Amino acid sequence: MKQVFKYDSNGNYVEPVLIEADAPLPKNCTDKPLPQPCWKPVFKNGAWVETATESERNPSPPPIELSPTEILQAENDDLKRQMAQLNADFSAFMDYIFSGGVA
């Protein structure tokens, strides 16, 4: 037995196929090994060609999803920063008023 590689009418890899060692190659099959690593091979002009794009070979990691608790914690932290800024602004305004800043 030997393994050959089946491709469709467009040359896209389909599946490995086992045949008898002395059997002729079936239609749309080749005994040429697939390139490694192998993402999206196409059999073209008697050779395998890797057609996967860079983004297909190295996909971006999925966005980090926060749990409801983490979302509430982030919102709470943001509100704390806003309150601290409001307190600082109010304190500065009161210092201005009490220091006779109004003529």
Topology at a glance:
Elements: E1 2-7, E2 13-19, E3 29-30, E4 41-44, E5 47-50, H1 54-57, H2 68-98
Antiparallel strand pairs: 1-2, 1-3, 4-5
Q: What share of residues are in beta strands?
A: 15-25%
Shape: rod-shaped
Number of helices: 2
Mean pLDDT comes to 91
Structural class: alpha+beta
- The topology string of helices and strands comes to EEEEEHH
How many strand units?
A: 5
The stretches of 5 or more residues where confidence is low (pLDDT under 50) are: none
Provide structural commentary.
- The chain has two domains: 2-57, no CATH class; 66-102.
- It is of the alpha+beta class and 103 residues long.
- The protein starts with a strand and ends in a 5-residue tail after the last helix.
- The strands form two sheets. A three-stranded antiparallel beta sheet has the order 2-1-3, with no helix packed on it. A two-stranded antiparallel sheet has the order 4-5.
- It is built from two helices and five strands, in the order βββββαα.
- The radius of gyration is 33 Å and the shape is rod-shaped.
Descriptive terms for the model:
5 strands; 2 helices; single chain; 3-stranded antiparallel sheet; alpha+beta; rod-shaped; two-stranded antiparallel ribbon; 2 domains; 22% strand; 103 residues
Quick overview of this protein structure:
It contains 2 helices and 5 strands, in the order βββββαα.
